[in-house]
Design brief:
The complex is a heterotetramer of chains A (494), B (316), C (675) and D (223).
Chain A lengths: L2 H19 L3 H29 L2 E3 L3 E3 L1 H30 L5 H22 L4 H19 L5 H36 L8 H7 L5 H19 L7 H8 L2 H30 L1 H24 L4 H22 L2 H31 L10 H4 L1 H14 L6 H16 L1 H26 L12 H20 L6 H13 L9
Antiparallel strand pairs in A: 1-2
Chain B lengths: L1 H32 L9 H11 L3 E3 L5 H19 L15 H21 L3 H32 L4 H9 L9 H17 L18 H4 L5 H26 L10 H28 L5 H26 L1
Chain C lengths: L1 H16 L8 H28 L4 E6 L6 E6 L1 H24 L9 H20 L3 H19 L6 H32 L4 H5 L7 H19 L8 H7 L2 H26 L6 H23 L4 H28 L3 H36 L10 H4 L1 H14 L6 H14 L7 H33 L6 H4 L6 H19 L1 H16 L4 H4 E2 L4 E3 L7 E2 L1 H23 L5 E3 L16 H11 L1 H4 L2 E8 L7 E9 L3 H21 L7 H19 L1
Antiparallel strand pairs in C: 1-2, 3-4, 4-5, 7-8
The chains are: A mainly alpha (494), B mainly alpha (316), C mainly alpha (675), D mainly alpha (223).
């Protein structure tokens, strides 16, 4: 029973090529909505299978274990809601005559291929092919970021492509080094590139090689994940990209970057013990937190604002993984909730941008009364991202800080302080936007746009609420087996 | 039970009866020292009687607070008076309240008096209330602290218990210094609370100087009578407090007729003595400016505090 | 009991959802929400009482898939007491809301307001009954969040937004410290359950215990509004709708008191050095004094009341602090007395502060202004509100025989019993605290004489006041019920004390109700009978008797009790509101005496006629009280962060080369770190 | 094949690697953009040859394909694209430096030493034949990275990036005897597409703004 997995990876490719061929808009919309449904269903099915069977594979080509299934869920869910949102958003742009039908179909083609690349990357046991897929997603993303060819967009895209290709190159060297140190054990073959095999023989791998490899992987994939100080492309790209893309970058691509780091960490931990990788990751995570917390304060641009908040949350999740044990559980949980919340935030921001056609934070007020949907989206997301109950980010942050306190208190103190700071700075900006009396009127949105975007936002908020204070049992088992991947058993919660 | 009731009634009568006399006495002393003949010491009784017979005029701007206040003031002051031993060391009502209750009962009256001062809406009333407010807020801490300094010696905050013990020479003051300081402090407080020179001048109606008089400026007839009576009650209360706390000589510690007789006489003499002292002070001191009063009362507070410190240091 | 608990939770939950089911019917929305809240808080009252008298605490728990989180509740006497307090105030507030919500029709979404109110009450209840640290934190944060949204109900106004944000930040910083408490306990216990925290065998090292103490003091203190963490309070409480202000000021800040008692006496097992109690005592004294002093200078009625919350929290902490000091020296009975005094004042303050805020709300409702200088003469126009407000004022100024008097009396006694302490220092400190308390009490008296006198007496000072009229019946019932509570709690200590004793008994290990109540409950005295006693019922009786006596005398000497009405003598000219004493003028002597604290700055601008400098065209008078803490404590911190942020923003200067360099340097450094 | 041939092979492979390194240095040193491109092409040729040599010596045939691809893509296709860009923009002039040449060369030297240090403990793992190439590969990568920083002209940043790619390829083929074919094809595909996209970007950038000096591309940042 492998077709859900195959479908999960294949569907976006087909949809993308399909929409490139299609000639009228209606058809593309239908196709995309179908894709959204398919993604959701397939991801759910795959996750179900993994929960049941432990892992799923399509021959030699696609393999999925708990961690991959977790990423499938995130990408699948946010990807589908993002597709729906994109239909509304890009449709509106087209209605306003900013886009030709050709560009319209191109957009969705790129969009789908980008999703496909990421899905391929995470459902992959071969580290090299994972690298290829992620590089692929980088390239599609580069084209998407510069999609509307404004000067700023091109500049951001240019920086993005340079920086992340650089990062990805470093990651490749890391990959090569792993292969280099594993091949004389596993022989010159694909076997030497398989996670499962690497985990198995990790004990025999040469520590020095693995250490260097991990550093290259950390910096390389860290660039993709937007970990400070490799994060510099992130705010520009998020700010200048079309908003659905900003949402996908934050919710999916950063997560995939983290995923790649985690895979390498798993090998490194088995080979040289968890301290080495843990120390590095914790350090970079705290740096990311600090930088984002400070920069949140001086933002004048609401999309950059959410971009920095992404850096913060990726940092938090990484901190969790760096601590290990309880932290791994919390980190994974944090990734999922962050993906949901952040995409919601960007959905709202997109609507605001469509209405006012500027990104200036100071000029946006009174969203709740003027644009209830966008206002609610930004408010709910903002509260969630600030780490307030009843949202999952609160629970994960508490668990992470608890975990870090038991391991190394000083980290917990810093973490608490930075969290409080980031809370203040983020909410200060968000509340300025949503509360108060509306300022300018702007141009109203079309009906279709409103329907689709509201649907996407609704889906996200509902999901965010339902998994807020309660991990569904299935996901709990997934998380438990993820924790196992990192060597520690989850102690029963008291 | 019956005995208790009779005692309460007796004390009520004594207080109500003797208080106007004290006012009259003080006035007489002042008159004498100012080389006037002055009115007889029983003049206040006549004043009260006259005021009671007059029909009160009530300002049409006022609310029910204004006419109600005299009764509340009278009630609270009298109730406070019942907590203080006069001629007998054991007052049956003393269990109902200790010094703190006493202070707060007086405060209750003051509170409504301040409200009444504001109620008529004239500038005088407000001025009086505002000044009374500052005075009262500075006296009460000193008062509580000074009485507490005494209370420590007898290990009780019930006034009648303190008096009783001191009278029976139980828990006798091993050394006078804390007592002395507390006495001075309490005396200053008494002057302030009863609106005497150098804090206030009951004889003036000059808006620059008056405090208490300004508050009650709008009152007339029986309302004024009640207020005047309450004021004199307050005076009597403080005098008996000072007299019995620091000189419980001759007070009736048992309830034999003889003891009570002696007690009554001793009590009258003692408070009359203190009243004379007040009269002397009133004509030897000038009234202080309102913002100098704070210094006086601050001094009282410090004295009481010192009394406390001395007590602990001497007791170790 | 479980049924009651479920009923409570259920009807609050329904109250959160149901109002939204009546779109565009604000009347119905408000009514539905209030009814749900009434049902819930009604069952809450029953639950609290039964929890106080029950022999075994009710416990219930729902497991969770999140590690270390369990939705566990436990109604021990302490929790039940606070549930009772919350529900009493909640009931009154929701009755009051039935009328008060009209104020908001068409301006804000009544459904949201009603739903949030239910959520607020629910979260507060959860905070006090939670039996798991994680769960507690969730409830605590929810409480903060919901109350924030209630504060910014009228978020079109900039000052409201500022107040709300200030509150949100402060409370979140506080929460960070609360989290720290639970982290430390979690580390030692290996679990978040209160039971594990409680276990004595996991006694923390001294440093950690001190850290817990400080974290609790700061964390809970921020919520409670202790000086100098009180600054948010006078902004946030007035900004909220009045029945919410009543709940925030009356009840929410008490959850912090609950937290402190829980941590100090329950988790720490009452084992602490003397200076803990002393610090609490100092904080209490400072808060009490400064709170009332700043209140005196306020002419915004709601801000005035908010400052009085700071004062009363201070009084509560005086009681608790004294209790802690006694606890340290093993004087268990006195410890129990101090704690009991604090708890008694807690519920009393909940009652009269809620009452007063509702009174202020009624004035706002009919005059649409919060400025006392525009009130005046309202007692005739709204007699019921006036009466209830007066009762509240008398209670908060602790005048006999009301409830405030009883609890403050207990605090006084606790402080005076310092004679039994071994060290001279403390022997002296506690009476001084008592003197400060006395000063506080009198200043409160002055402040409320001002508040009531200026607002309700004399002539109306503005057209608002002139056209004021009595508020709807629902609001009057809400206030009336609380007024009854105030008087009742004052006259019936013989009922209250034994209940409170069931809380302090387990915490201090000694029961004192039989010692405190003598003459079969008629008199209330301290643990050693000699030391002094009061009996509020008797005092009340005496007051009434003496009042009647006065009436009787007047009748005897004066004959028929007739009186004549005539206008106040205004020095010959007709009396006008402009001749009345203003609140500012009334407080002037105090401002003069304590100018060291207030540092008042007076600005007087006069425009003269060009013809002659003897005639002023217009004068403008400004009187500013220096907000010391904000100016010297808070602004610098904010500016510091702003400065850092501005300087750092060059890191993101937009040069690709720069960005590449970051990565390059990081790479090289890390590689060297391996070699 | 015999030991001696292996020794010779080793030396020849090392020679190839060293040639690569030298070309790197010369690119750092050069000041004309077009000559940078030419030298890069030359380097790619060397790379291809080295790869072919390894393939010949080890008999792992798919490396031949990789070698061929290298020469085709990196020595022919990409340089042409770059030259086209250069000509269109006519930026073939004295390059502006962030770091002047002597300092640059010094830093590169330091980087090479660092690379050797780091790879020292790892080398013994490798196959006799290509031990030192790993160190050289890392050195090339670091130097390439440095190139991207040292120059302001975007095209040189592209060149630096491609030099890094060369280093990676050397590491892959020489050090690790080449990854499985599929991987290498994938890698190549990506490099090609990457280069294309970068080309597209420089192209579009030039359309939107007359000059593509990245030092002037600083509008999107913290205000």
């Amino acid at each position: 029973m492998f077709w859900p997995l195959a479908l999960l990876v294949a569907a976006p490719v087909m949809a993308g090529l399909g929409s490139l061929l299609m000639q009228q808009r209606r058809a593309i919309e239908v196709l995309q909505c179908a894709l959204a449904g398919t993604l959701l269903a397939a991801a759910a099915l795959v996750a179900g299978q993994v929960i049941a069977a432990g892992e799923v594979s399509v021959g030699d080509f696609l393999q999925t274990d708990a961690l991959s299934a977790w990423l499938d869920l995130i990408i699948g869910f946010v990807g589908s809601s993002g597709t729906i949102y994109a239909v509304g958003y890009v449709g509106e742009e087209m209605d306003r005559g900013h886009l030709s039908l050709r560009r319209y179909s191109q957009f969705f083609c790129l969009f789908d291929l980008y999703l496909a690349a990421m899905l391929l990357g995470v459902n992959q046991e071969n580290i090299a092919i994972m690298w290829i897929a992620i590089e692929g997603s980088t390239l599609w993303a580069a084209l998407l970021i510069g999609f509307d060819r404004s000067k700023a967009a091109l500049e951001a895209g240019w920086r993005y492509i340079i920086l992340s290709s650089l990062g990805i190159a470093l990651a490749l060297f890391g990959t090569i080094l792993v292969y280099y140190s594993s091949e004389h054990i596993l022989g010159v073959s694909n076997e030497a590139l398989r996670w499962s095999q690497l985990y198995r023989v990790a004990g025999e791998l040469d520590p020095a090689g693995i250490k260097v490899a991990f550093i290259f992987a950390l910096i390389g994939y860290g660039t993709k994940a937007g970990v400070a100080p490799m994060h510099t492309w992130l705010p520009d790209a998020h700010a200048e990209a079309p908003t659905p893309i900003s949402a996908m970058l934050s919710a999916n691509m950063l997560t995939v970057g983290v995923y790649a780091i985690l895979r390498f960490k798993a090998v490194t931990d088995r080979s040289v013990g968890p301290e080495f990788a843990g120390k590095l990751i914790i350090g970079l995570a705290l740096l990311s937190l600090a930088i984002s917390a400070i920069f949140l304060l001086v933002q004048r641009d609401y999309k950059r604002l959410f971009a920095y908040s992404s850096i913060e949350h990726i940092g938090i999740a990484l901190l969790g993984f760096g601590i290990g044990g309880l932290g791994v559980f919390a980190g994974a949980w944090h990734l999922m909730n962050h993906a949901l919340a952040k995409s919601t935030a960007f959905y709202g921001a997109g609507l605001v941008f469509l209405r006012y056609n500027h990104k200036s934070l100071d000029r946006v007020t009174g969203l709740l009364s003027q644009m209830p949907v966008a206002g609610t989206a930004i408010l709910v997301a903002g509260v969630a991202l600030a780490g307030m109950p009843p949202f999952g980010l609160f629970t994960s942050e508490v668990l992470i800080v608890a975990g870090s306190y038991t391991v190394r208190p000083e980290v917990a103190y810093v973490f608490l302080a930075l969290l409080a700071l980031a809370f203040a700075t983020l909410l200060y900006q968000v509340l300025r936007m949503v509360l108060g009396a509306p300022g300018e009127t702007g141009t109203a949105l079309g009906t279709q746009c409103r329907i689709f975007t509201s649907a996407a936002i609704g889906i996200n908020i509902v999901a965010l609420g339902t998994i807020g204070l309660h991990v569904p049992p299935g996901l709990a088992t997934l998380l438990a087996s993820i924790v196992k991947i990192f060597g520690t058993e989850m102690e029963a919660s008291r | 039970m019956l005995q208790a009731i009779t005692l309460v009634v007796a004390q009520t009568i004594v207080l109500l009866g003797i208080s106007p006399f004290l006012v009259g006495l003080i006035r007489k002393v002042k008159a004498r020292l100012q080389c006037r003949r002055g009115a007889g010491v029983f003049q206040p009784y006549a004043d009260l009687a006259k005021l009671f017979r007059k029909q009160p005029v009530v300002s049409s701007t006022t609310s029910w607070i204004f006419p109600a206040t005299p009764y509340i003031l009278f009630a609270s002051t009298l109730a406070a008076g019942l907590l203080v031993p006069t001629f007998a060391s054991q007052t049956p009502m003393s269990f109902a309240g200790n010094i703190i209750a006493l202070v707060y009962l007086l405060a209750l009256g003051t509170f409504f008096l301040i409200l009444a001062g504001l109620d008529a809406g004239s500038a005088f009333g407000g001025m009086g209330s505002s000044r009374e407010a500052i005075v009262v807020s500075l006296t009460e801490p000193a008062m509580i602290l000074s009485i507490f300094a005494i209370a420590l010696t007898s290990g009780s905050t019930n006034i009648s218990t303190i008096v009783h013990k001191t009278a029976l020479l139980e828990g006798i003051v091993t050394d006078p210094s804390p007592h002395l300081m507390a006495l001075v402090a309490l005396f200053i407080v008494a002057l302030a609370e009863t609106g005497r020179v150098p804090v206030d001048n009951p004889a003036t109606h000059l808006e620059l100087t008056m405090i208490h008089e300004a508050m009650v400026l709008e009152y007339s007839g029986r309302h004024l009578a009640l207020i005047e009576w309450a004021a004199s009650l307050k005076l009597a209360l403080f005098l008996s407090l000072i007299a019995n706390l620091f000189a419980p000589w001759g007070i009736a510690t048992t309830l034999t007729p003889a003891a009570i007789g002696i007690g009554l006489v001793a009590y009258t003499l003692k408070i009359a003595g203190v009243a004379v002292l007040i009269g002397v002070i009133e004509c030897t001191f000038a009234k202080l400016r309102l913002f100098r009063v704070t210094e006086l009362l601050g001094a009282a507070f410090i004295l009481a505090l010192l009394g406390l410190v001395f007590f602990y240091i001497l007791r170790g | 009991m479980l049924i009651l608990l479920l009923l409570l939770l259920a009807s609050y939950a329904v109250g959160v959802v149901l109002p939204f089911c009546f779109p565009r019917k604000p009347q119905a929305q408000g009514m539905v929400g209030s009814v749900c809240a009434c049902v819930a808080s009604g069952s809450g009252i029953a639950l609290g009482i039964s929890g106080l008298i029950a022999s075994e605490p009710l416990t219930a728990s729902v497991a969770s898939t999140i590690p270390f989180l369990a939705f566990a509740v436990r109604l021990d006497p302490l929790a039940s007491f606070f549930v009772l307090t919350i529900s009493l105030a909640g009931l009154a507030a929701s009755i009051y809301a039935m009328g008060y919500l009209k104020e908001f029709h068409g301006r804000v979404s009544v459904a949201t307001l009603a739903a949030l109110t239910n959520g607020f009450l629910l979260s507060m209840t959860l905070v006090v009954i939670a039996d798991n640290g994680f769960f507690f934190l969730i409830a605590w944060e929810l409480m903060s969040l919901v109350s924030y949204f209630l504060v910014v109900t009228e978020h079109e106004r900039a000052d409201v937004r500022y107040a709300g944000f200030f509150y949100l930040i402060m409370t979140h910083v506080g929460t960070a410290f609360v989290v720290l408490i639970y982290l430390i306990l979690f580390q030692s216990a290996g679990s978040f359950s209160f039971e594990a925290f409680r276990h004595p065998e996991q006694s923390l090292p001294e440093g950690m215990r001190t850290l817990v103490f400080l974290a609790a003091l700061i964390g809970f203190g921020t919520k409670a509004g202790i000086v100098p963490l009180h600054v948010w309070l006078p902004y946030a409480h007035p900004a909220a709708p009045s029945h919410i202000s009543a709940l925030m000021s009356g009840v929410m800040i008490k959850t912090a008191i609950y937290g402190m008692i829980r941590v100090y006496f329950d988790f720490m097992g009452g084992q602490f050095p003397w200076w803990w109690g002393f610090v609490v005592l100092i904080v209490g004294a400072t808060s009490a004094l400064l709170g009332v002093m700043y209140a005196l200078m306020e002419h915004d009625l709601k801000r005035l009341l908010a400052f009085h919350s700071v004062e009363n929290i201070g009084i509560i902490l005086l009681g608790i602090g004294a209790g802690m000091i006694f606890q340290t020296y093993g004087l268990k009975e006195l410890a129990a007395l101090g704690l009991l005094a604090g708890l008694y004042h807690t519920i009393n303050h909940a009652m009269f502060k809620a009452l007063l805020f509702m009174g202020a709300g009624s004035l706002l409702y009919t005059t649409h202004t919060r400025n006392m200088e525009e009130y005046g003469g309202l007692l005739k126009r709204m007699p019921w509100t006036g009466l209830f407000f007066l009762i509240g004022a008398v209670s908060i100024t602790a005048l006999p025989p009301t409830n405030g008097f009883v609890s403050e009396w207990l605090v006084f006694q606790a402080l005076f019993l310092s004679a039994q302490l071994p060290t001279l220092f403390l022997k002296l400190m506690l009476p001084i605290a008592a003197a400060i308390l006395a000063l506080t009490g009198v200043l409160a008296l002055v402040c409320f004489a001002k508040a009531f006198g200026i607002s309700f007496l004399a002539l109306p000072r503005s057209s608002h006041a002139r056209h004021a009229e009595e508020v709807p019946i629902a609001m009057r019932i809400g206030m009336g019920s609380l007024a009854v509570c105030c008087v009742g709690l004052g006259l019936a200590p013989m009922i209250v004390v034994p209940l409170l004793d069931r809380i302090t008994g387990p915490l201090t290990g000694v029961s004192i109700s039989d010692k405190v109540l003598s003459l079969d409950g008629w008199a209330l005295d301290t643990v050693n009978v000699e030391f002094g006693s009061i009996s509020t019922p008797i005092l009340a009786a005496m007051l009434i008797a003496c009042g009647l006596l006065g009436l009787f005398l007047a009748f005897v000497f004066g004959g028929r009790l007739v009186k004549r009405y005539y206008k106040t003598w205004g020095c010959g000219i007709n009396l006008s509101p402009r001749m009345e004493y203003t609140a500012t003028g009334f407080a002037q002597p105090i401002r003069q005496v304590f100018r060291a604290i207030y540092q008042p700055t007076v600005k007087l601008e006069t425009e003269f006629l060009e013809e002659s400098r003897y005639f002023a065209k217009r004068r403008h008078f400004d009187l500013l009280i220096e907000p010391v803490f904000e100016k010297y404590l808070y602004d610098p911190v904010v500016n510091l962060f702003m400065g850092i942020a501005d300087r750092l923003s060059i890191l993101q200067a937009g040069s690709l080369t720069l960005y590449l360099t970051y990565i390059f340097v990081t790479l090289v450094v890390l590689l060297l770190f391996v070699v | 094949m015999s030991l001696s041939s292996i020794d010779i092979g080793t030396q020849m492979v090392n020679l190839g690697s060293v040639l690569l390194l030298i070309t790197c240095f010369s690119i750092v040193g050069l000041r004309r953009l077009s000559s940078c491109v030419h030298v890069f092409a030359l380097q790619s040729v060397f790379l291809g040859l080295t790869a072919a040599l390894v393939a010949f010596l080890t008999g792992i045939h798919h490396i031949y394909i990789a070698a061929l691809l290298t020469i085709v893509v990196k020595a022919v296709v990409i340089p042409r694209i770059l030259m086209k860009v250069i000509r269109r923009k006519d930026v073939d002039r004295e390059l502006e430096m962030n770091v002047n040449v002597p300092t640059g060369l010094l830093i590169c030297g330091a980087l090479v030493i660092l690379a050797f240090f780091i790879t020292q403990p790892i080398i013994p793992l490798g196959f006799l034949l290509t031990r030192d190439s790993l160190s050289i590969a890392l050195a090339i990568i670091l130097v390439g990275f440095f190139m991207m920083i040292a120059r302001k002209e975007p095209v040189t940043q592209v060149i630096g990036f491609l030099v890094m790619e060369n280093g990676l390829f050397l590491a892959a083929t020489a050090a690790a005897y080449g990854m499985p074919l599929i991987v290498e094809l994938g890698v190549f595909f990506d490099v090609l597409v990457g280069a294309l996209i970068i080309g597209i970007y420089t192209h579009q950038l030039q359309d939107t703004l007359d000059n593509v000096d990245t030092s002037k591309l600083t509008t999107v940042k913290e205000k």
